[in-house]
Amino acid sequence: MDTTRLQDTSVAAATVAPVLTRPPAAQSTATGNGTETGERQIVFELSDVEVSYHGATAVRGVNLQVAAREITAFIGPSGCGKTTVLRSLNRMHDITPGARVEGRISYHGEDLYAAKVDVAEVRRRIGMVFQKPNPFPKSIHDNIAYGPRINGRRRGEIGDLVESALRRAALWDEVKDKLKQTALGLSGGQQQRLCIARALAVEPDVVLMDEPCSALDPIATARIEDLMQELKHDYTLVIVTHNMQQAARASDRTAFFTAEADEAGRRVGALVEFDRTEQLFTQPSDERTEGYISGRFG
Amino acid sequence: MTATTDASPPSLLTSGQQSASRKLRNHLATACILATVLIALIPLYFVIAFVVRKGGSTFGWSFLTQDPPIIDQLSGGGMFPAIVGTLIITAGATIMAVPLGILGAIYLNEYGQHSRLARVLRFLSEIMLGVPSIVMGLFIFTVITLHFKTLNGFAGSLALACLILPIVIRTSEEMLHLVPDELREGSYALGSRRVRTIRTVVLPNAAPGIVSGSLLAVARAAGETAPLLFVIGTVTSANHNLFSGPNTTLSVQIFHGATSPFVGAQNRAYAAALTLVLLTFVFTGLARLVTTIYARRSTAGA
């Protein structure tokens, strides 16, 4: 990405500035703005992103673009910084003491880390599903209703929102008769779909998924993968996975990260290759990528 | 356990000799653990049995509702003023210390965390935890009682509040610390702000533990004698006003009665001890009930 583009996006940032401060209902107009490259509409643009914890760099040199209504997968061995990069996309690092994000991350052309950005609004637009299912110890209904409630939706709307979120997460038929029961009684796979439904209930634009299937059995994993294909029509998905088959099956684009020793001998993560998934898995341009996907290391 | 019963043919899953000795050690360890539990229960049993036996005959409805006689030599009478005093003085201490302590714990665990200020506060609170109760009484005596030149129940409440504040902070912080970070992250990821996350996710999860911890602190306050001895004075008729005039509590009355040479006063002390035990019991039960209902409601999501 060259410097003229950078300026372009900052000009765009001025015009679409209210995206991250606008009330929940009005988001359809916002997605019309932003930067377009041909048909693909760019949601996230990362340039020279570096994340450090207490001064120690965890990952650096990340340049990539996430397009709307695609599934972008981050793969790589443990400690390569893929989760760290994912968490920088909804500013989750803000609550980690000592974490620091440098470089530029723009969301629909707007600087995600600008001082005036409202972090709560960022996280409402950019939802997240975690590695371990983390339903609140409340009823199924209240888990889904939590997001709409804190975002000020009226009491009357909540019932419908809960149902539509559960339907979109393919969980409605399994739980419609026990909405008042505790969510902790669900199986692991159901809990994870509940967490997806919970994220969808606030009507986000992007859903980030941090190894969403790593705690699940193959059947539950398959259901979540099917679900991702469904969600792709309406949402932009970014998933972190250490399951290469999952990335190959499910994603449109894949970013391969790896960790290598820096000058001081510390292991630092870096983005090696970012391409269309088919391209990356069949004709990787970097030998490290080839080594990883053919199982030579990682 | 049942593996050794089948001697022939040789089982693939047992290790013969070893499992017999393991069984023996298992029984020994179980017996030891059981014995320690019983030993721990012995003092509890004797305290309760002793208090019931010695105080049971004096205890009764009239004991709970009558004033004590003016002079110790007389027998009969009751502990009504001390019950009133215990309730209002402990309530005063609870109202001051518990909310403050919980807010302090929220600051330490949710905001301050490892910051310098939080570490200093945590250290000071720990020092406060180690201060003997009579020193708290002396502190209030010099700062409040000598300054205003009056004995009243509120000074007692203040002394007890100082005493239990660090306990409330410590236990509440511990309980907040136990709330998994995944739940906080789940809430933040939905666009929740910090205050909202604390109010709707962190506190409901920590509530049962915070209530239990606060309750232990309140029970401790209700039974304290030393900090009250020289700041609340004593009365023989009920003083319902926390802020004016001397007052008395069950614990102080137990101290007076038990150190008195007269049988009537001694019997009243035993009955007062029984009253205090029952009072603590009732409040513990009530708080448990409230916590259970609250926890059920927040998990069932009514």
Structure description:
- The complex is a heterodimer of chains A (298) and B (302).
- By secondary structure, chain A is an alpha/beta fold.
- Helix content of chain A is 36%, strand content 26%.
- Chain A is built from twelve helices and eleven strands.
- In chain A, helix 5 crosses helix 6, helix 6 packs across helix 8 and helix 8 runs parallel beside helix 9.
- In chain B, helix 1 crosses helix 10, helix 3 runs antiparallel to helix 8 and helix 3 crosses helix 9.
- The longest helix of chain B has 39 residues.
- Chain B is globular, with a radius of gyration of 26 Å.
- The mean pLDDT of chain B is 88.
- Chains A and B meet through helix 4, helix 5 and helix 8 of A and helix 7, helix 8 and helix 10 of B.
Quick overview:
Chain A is of the alpha/beta class and 298 residues long. Chain A is built from twelve helices and eleven strands. Chain A has helices at 3-15, 28-32, 82-88, 119-125, 140-150, 155-168, 172-175, 188-200, 218-231, 244-250, 277-282, 287-293; strands spanning 35-37, 40-53, 56-67, 71-75, 99-107, 110-111, 126-129, 206-210, 236-240, 253-261, 267-276.
Distance between the termini of chain A: 29 Å
**How much helix, percentage-wise, in residues of chain B?**
over 70%
What's the overall average pLDDT of chain A, rounded? Answer: 85
Largest sheet of chain B: none
Q: Give the N-to-C terminal Cα separation of chain B.
A: 46 Å
Shape of chain A: globular
The dominant shape of chain B is: globular
Low-confidence stretches of chain B: none
- Rg for CA atoms of chain B: 26 Å
Overall strand count of chain B: 0
Instruction: Kindly report the greatest chain-chain contact and the residue count on each side.
Output: A-B, 32 and 25 residues
Structural class of chain A: alpha/beta
User: What percentage of residues of chain A falls in helices of 4 or more residues?
Assistant: 25-40%
What is the radius of gyration of chain A computed over CA atoms, rounded to a whole number of angstroms?
19 Å
Number of helices of chain B: 10
* Helix-strand sequence of chain A: HHEEEEHEEHEHHHHEHEHEEHH
Strand % of chain B is: under 5%
Strand segment count of chain A: 11
- Seen as an oligomer or otherwise, the chain set is heterodimer
Number of separate helices of chain A: 12
